[in-house]
């Protein structure tokens, strides 16, 4: 085993050792359950410091490739269950499914008019044409929170994050994210072998003091954040906080900021971006799934040409471009007065639903936040028991643990408040039962701020 590992190492840095072991695991030459040699044995054979091997083992552990079992040693992990799979819909259909995180279909704009207007074949073009319709690019640039050097369109926000991360990250890179964060993003970063570091939020966005500390201790290459209606907490970054964060990031010149504006036009907060202060180091992703329809499968990427052009060039080896037919639909929707009014109406309805559910929960002493977007983040003493209690009431919720990079001050559930069109009083009663009658006694008692705020 030791010769197999050391023989595969070409780069004797911590990152190089981790990459070599990762390749052996992926190739099946280090199968799940295999016990690894000790840190000292590997260090001695390679002629490096045990600290270097320890860092490599730590990166592999954070990536889920290996696991430590106390005195028994360190072993190759089995395939880790993705966080996103733990958010899948319950096996039994419940009357009220608030686990999904999707927009209310009844609040999406009608696409039939747009399809009729643009379905005449005029969008068909050469394989070698630009990936974005010129008319759509012009509209997107007008809406962008800062002037992007380059802009393209891809198949949704997660497709955008996947392509950006694959272009700029290397195995073992340190990457900053919000804590809590969107589980598919955490799955993606783990798949790429990144070392993920969570930065807590307060009501204005990322905590600047924690960010300052992390920047001083590590050398992260990227920061992924959601500037508005953060999923799951609903927090939106303020202009003042954006300026403060940008001031700190100026001292980390190699770090790229990746913003996922997933809520788009249904967010009530203004479009604040770090790109206003750091345009050459900020890639902004604008999604239209929640505002105009998930099945449009469209999101725009705008920012430094060096990054966006990598995405464009790599796509030429795959899908090439996103459907120009659907781009035409989006262009029509973004410029149609009736659709603009419909989206504005949906934005107001979502705000009313969040406020009504929060007020009803507050009457029961339940700690929750839903400042923007369609989600509500509720603190509970015990996540599993809370979900069982809700299931008994015919309600499905998403567990909070998959959202957390590191544990918060209490357990949580995420609920799609945007789907609650009525009956907030009865729902709040059931949610209160889940929050306070979970096998640890009853009555309203908090265990910390819903974000883990200090």
UniProtKB/TrEMBL annotation:
Record has Transcription regulation as a keyword: yes
Region forming the signal peptide: none
A Pfam cross-reference name: Aminotran_1_2
Keywords, ordered alphabetically: DNA-binding, Pyridoxal phosphate, Transcription, Transcription regulation
Gene Ontology terms, MF aspect: DNA binding; DNA-binding transcription factor activity; pyridoxal phosphate binding
SMART domains: HTH_GNTR
Keyword check for Membrane: no
InterPro entries: Aminotransferase_I/II_large, HTH_trans_reg/aminotransferase, PyrdxlP-dep_Trfase, PyrdxlP-dep_Trfase_major, Tscrpt_reg_HTH_GntR, WH-like_DNA-bd_sf, WH_DNA-bd_sf
Gene3D superfamilies: Type I PLP-dependent aspartate aminotransferase-like (Major domain), Winged helix-like DNA-binding domain superfamily/Winged helix DNA-binding domain
Residues covered by the HTH gntR-type domain: 11-79
Family recorded in the similarity comment: In the C-terminal section; belongs to the class-I pyridoxal-phosphate-dependent aminotransferase family.
Protein name in the entry: GntR family transcriptional regulator
Lineage: Bacteria, Bacillati, Actinomycetota, Actinomycetes, Micromonosporales
């Amino acid at each position: 085993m030791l010769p197999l590992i050391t023989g595969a190492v070409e780069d004797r840095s911590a990152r190089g050792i981790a990459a070599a072991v990762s390749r052996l695991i992926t190739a099946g030459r280090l199968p799940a359950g295999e016990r690894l040699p000790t840190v000292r044995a590997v260090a001695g054979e390679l002629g490096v410091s045990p600290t270097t091997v320890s860092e490599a083992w730590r990166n592999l552990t954070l990536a889920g490739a290996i696991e430590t079992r106390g005195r028994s040693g360190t072993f190759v992990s089995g395939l880790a269950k993705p966080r996103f799979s733990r958010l899948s819909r319950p096996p039994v259909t419940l009357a009220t499914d608030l686990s999904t995180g999707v927009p209310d279909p009844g609040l999406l704009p009608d696409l039939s008019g747009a399809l009729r207007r643009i379905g005449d074949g005029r969008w068909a073009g050469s394989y070698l044409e630009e990936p974005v319709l010129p008319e759509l690019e012009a509209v997107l640039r007008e809406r962008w929170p800062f002037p992007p050097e380059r802009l393209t369109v891809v198949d949704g926000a997660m497709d955008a994050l996947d392509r950006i991360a694959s272009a700029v990250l290397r195995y073992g890179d340190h990457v900053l994210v919000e804590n809590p964060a969107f589980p598919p993003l955490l799955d993606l970063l783990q798949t790429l072998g990144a070392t993920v570091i969570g930065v807590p939020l307060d009501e204005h966005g990322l905590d600047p003091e924690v960010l300052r500390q992390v920047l001083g201790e590590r050398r992260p290459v990227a920061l992924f954040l959601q500037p508005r209606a953060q999923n799951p907490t609903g927090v939106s970054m303020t202009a003042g906080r954006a300026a403060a964060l940008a001031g700190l990031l100026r001292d980390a010149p190699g770090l790229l900021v990746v913003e996922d504006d997933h809520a788009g036009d249904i967010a009530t907060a203004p479009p604040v971006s770090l790109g206003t202060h750091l345009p050459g180091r900020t890639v902004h992703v604008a999604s239209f799934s929640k505002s105009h329809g998930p099945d449009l499968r469209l999101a725009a990427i705008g920012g430094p040409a060096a990054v966006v052009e990598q995405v464009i060039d790599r796509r030429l080896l795959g899908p090439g471009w996103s459907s120009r037919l659907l781009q035409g639909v989006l262009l029509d929707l973004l410029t149609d007065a009736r659709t603009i009014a419909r989206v504005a109406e949906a934005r107001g309805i979502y705000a009313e639903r969040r406020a009504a559910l929060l007020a009803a929960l507050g009457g029961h002493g339940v700690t929750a936040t839903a400042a923007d977007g369609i989600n509500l983040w509720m603190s509970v003493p015990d996540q599993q028991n809370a979900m069982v209690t809700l299931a008994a009431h015919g309600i499905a919720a998403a567990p909070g643990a998959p959202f957390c990079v590191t544990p918060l001050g209490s357990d949580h559930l995420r609920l799609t408040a945007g789907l609650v069109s009525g009956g907030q009083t009865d729902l709040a009663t059931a949610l209160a039962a889940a929050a306070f009658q979970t096998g640890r006694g009853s009555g309203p008692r908090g265990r910390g701020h819903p974000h883990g705020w200090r």
